[in-house]
Amino acid sequence: MKRYLVAALLLLGTVLALTACGAGNDNADFNGGNSDKSLKIVTTIFPEYDWVRQIVGDLNGQAEITLLVANGLDLHSYQPTVEDIRKLSECDLFVYVGGESEEWVEAALQEAVNPNMQALNLLAVLGDAAMAEQTDQLTGKPEYDEHVWLSLKNAGLFCSIIAEKLADMDPDNAEVYLANAAAYQEKLELLDADYKSVVAAAPQKTLVFADRFPFLYLAEDYGLNWYAAFAGCSAETEASFATIQFLAEKIDELGLHNVLVIEQSDQRLAQTVVQNTQNRDQQILVMDSMQAITSKDIDEGASYLTIMEKNLAALREALN
Prior knowledge:
This protein is an alpha/beta fold. It is built from twelve helices and eleven strands. The protein has a five-stranded mixed β-sheet, sandwiched between helices. A two-stranded antiparallel ribbon has the order 6-7. Helix 6 packs antiparallel against helix 7 (174-201) and helix 9 (241-254) crosses helix 10 (268-275). The chain is globular, with a radius of gyration of 21 Å.
């Protein structure tokens, strides 16, 4: 279904180009869309967008940075518009996750009109370090967890590669990109050290999510155990009674005082799990997987680091 939709969009894009007519879209270009800017960079999700703007730094007036999955739209339900495909095809650098939610990218890249465009697939960068969230029951092949950005270690790796690519594309400003990336890497490392300290000092090492679980990479980084109602960002919406009972019993067994959900959860499942525990007094905490960031959030100062700092605060409470 996705491939047919992308093909239709690409065909429509060609027609619109021939008639000099463009289609509107809901993506976010926070640098004004100035076509005279020397670098055009397109990212699919907010973490990539924020990494790029940190690396570009004071040179942002020379770069047009576009965030495709914007205004609270989820990566897993996103479909590119004609305008999205056009921006992608003309950009100098395209940064994307590369998982099943972005199957449309392969066809879109084949239509790129910029012969020098470079594409950075984050899952491909991880290679063997990419983690499987489950196995396809039909094919027996692993389904890799797409939420690679929720690891501070991964973020550091990705930022280094982005900086190197920008330095190659714009050698006059190479030192600036590399210096900005190095400074940002220090911030990532400091926050990573804070996570390690919190986990080391915590009396608990287990998380219970009465929700989906996009934090597999984060849990692996810090040696945390976890239980969740659904794997990754499963499309399932209803948990069985057996799942609810299992999570409630696990909370009782471990003596946990908190249960976790992700952003935009209606918390009904978490409330049901709590009501099935012995004490029925657990607090519901939220960790943000950065899959619903809006333009307003960005205007109000949201950044990858500030959100990961808030997640650390939630983690500290969850493990105590």
